[in-house]
Amino acid sequence: MASALKNLSAYNDTDVPSAEEMTFGIVVAEWNVHITHALYEGCYDTLVKHGAKPENIYTMQVPGSFELTAGARMLNGQQNVDAVICLGCVIKGETSHDEYINQAVAIGLTNLGLTTGKPHIFGLITTNNEQQALDRAGGKHGNKGVESAITAIRMASLKKTPIQGKVKRAIGF
Ligand code: RBF
């Protein structure tokens, strides 16, 4: 589903595991800070809403989205968190810089997820213009920071939960 048809802040909050015993890293980029600040607020508040303790949420600011993966790696080195959420906003400009940054972040976070065995959440807004970014940072399409927080909680919970055999689960979409 295209994000234009989805509200990024909409989720079933009865179906979210408790984050009370979880620790999180949030790495947030300073480029387009009016957008990334809104992502951060949405992300942080959602983690706390679901039980995360403020002292268990570690925040790191990095200059731009390209630095998100290096920041996540450093944060991992210092704190044994259950999940790392990377927040940034890359807006298309006159050149193809956005494609290089977006690809680097996607590949970097995939690698970090696989090598550390911990969820690394892609909270990057990749838009054609500023209005599309505002729409996804608390505007008409919700807030990608909220979506990222819920994904982090669900993935951290999956990692903590032993996989059961022989149990048929209802799959809901
Ligand atoms: N960083 C972002 O987070 N979002 C952007 O939209 C963005 N646009 C950039 C455009 C240009 C032309 C350049 C050179 C950098 C841009 N950056 C952006 C910064 C980038 O993520 C990184 O911080 C710098 O390239 C230094 O490694």
Overview of the structural elements:
With 173 residues, the protein is of the alpha/beta class. It contains five helices and six strands; from the N terminus they run βαβαβαβαββα. The protein has helices spanning 33-49, 68-78, 97-116, 130-135, 144-160, and strands at 24-29, 57-62, 83-91, 120-127, 137-139, 142-143. The strands form two sheets. Strands 2-1-3-4 form a four-stranded parallel sheet, with helices on both faces. A two-stranded antiparallel sheet has the order 5-6. It binds riboflavin (RBF). Riboflavin is lined by residues 29, 31-32, 63-67, 88-91, 93, 97, 101.
Query: What is the rounded Rg?
Result: 16 Å
Main sheet: strands, sense, barrel: 4 strands, parallel
- Poorly predicted regions are none
The average pLDDT score comes to 94
> How would you sum up the global shape?
globular
Strand order of the largest sheet: 2-1-3-4
Cofactors and ligands: riboflavin
Indicate the proportion of strand residues. Answer: 15-25%
Helix/strand class: alpha/beta
Number of strands: 6
Helicity range of the residues?
Answer: 40-55%
Order of helices and strands: EHEHEHEHEEH
Counting DSSP H or I runs of 4 or more residues, the number of helices is 5
Distance between the termini: 12 Å
Oligomer type: single chain
